[in-house]
Specification:
23 strands, 0% helix, mainly beta
Length: 281
């Protein structure tokens, strides 16, 4: 049964749902300012879904592995799965999703997906661990999708100049366009007219969300991440900043999972770890 977990320190609080291990609220305690999108379905009914075991869309929502075909919804099934609470204290919580008879029909691998939320000072660290508990190599992608409240004139500033943006074509990634480079994204009515903005070979380890007065609203740090998505519905009052270890299919992808662009191969008994940190100035 879905449950919400509250963690808090003297500076910030966070609420996490066991459904999808989704972050639902991030507030500054003193001002009660909410930084995370409210999941209002008029624009988008989510707030920070976890993308696993794929990121983005597959051709015909299908793939093949060892000669068999499987169906997989966009962004995978973790965001719509009930996680178990492993442990919880005042300022941290750990949730876990284990492979089961529910996941095997779409994803024939045994795994643990562990999500840890930890508050420290003015920051929230969200750490992901994928454990291969199978007797063979597993193939997966994983990504983050937190949505932050914005006002008119807000912008996203990269730590370094980045390659991109690239765009989706009917949900599929297209890296064939002429190379561009970007350091700053202004959020306006035209920014997302072609869907998400995608950056590859990411050099930045931090991005900042700033308001129209150049005041930092939040900063987001992450470890070595090959892709970053920035997205919002047109004219919505939030923006998603999305570090990804994986990417949507290209239109010419063969459909074979192990050959998918951005896929991660994890040997039996091994672990994959990644994280991001949201800081409130």
């Amino acid at each position: 049964m879905k449950k919400e977990i509250l963690i808090q320190n003297s500076n910030i609080s966070a609420t996490v749902s066991t459904m999808g291990a989704e972050l639902k609220s991030l507030k500054q305690v003193k001002s009660n300012t909410e930084y995370l999108w409210s999941s209002d379905p008029r624009f988008w009914a989510r707030s920070a879904p976890i993308l696993f075991p794929i990121v983005g869309k597959m051709r015909q929502n299908q793939y093949t592995h060892n000669g068999l075909s499987y169906s997989m919804p966009q962004h995978g099934f973790a965001r719509d799965s009930e996680f178990n609470i492993v442990n919880q204290d005042k300022s941290s919580a750990t949730l876990e999703l284990e492979s089961s008879d529910k996941t095997f029909p779409s994803y024939p691998f045994k795994f643990y997906l562990i999500i840890n939320f930890t508050l420290e000072d003015d920051s929230l660290k969200v750490a992901y661990t994928v454990k291969n508990i199978d007797d063979k190599t597993i193939y997966f992608s994983i990504g983050s999708h937190p949505a932050f409240n914005v006002t008119k004139g807000s912008k996203v500033i990269f730590e370094n100049i980045e390659d991109g943006p690239y765009y989706l074509d009917d949900g599929f990634v297209d890296f064939t366009a002429k190379q561009q480079q970007t350091k700053e994204i202004e959020i306006n009515s035209n920014t997302f007219k072609n869907d998400a903005l995608i950056f590859k070979n990411l050099k930045s380890r931090e991005v900042r969300l700033m308001d129209s007065n150049d005041i930092t609203q939040i900063s987001m740090k992450f470890n070595q991440t090959p892709y970053l998505g920035i997205w919002s519905p047109v004219n919505a009052p939030f923006v998603c900043i999305e570090p990804w270890h994986g990417i949507a299919d290209t239109k010419d992808h063969s459909g074979e999972l192990k050959d998918k662009l951005g896929i991660n191969a994890l040997e039996a008994g091994k672990e994959f770890k990644t994280f991001y940190v949201i800081s409130i100035p």
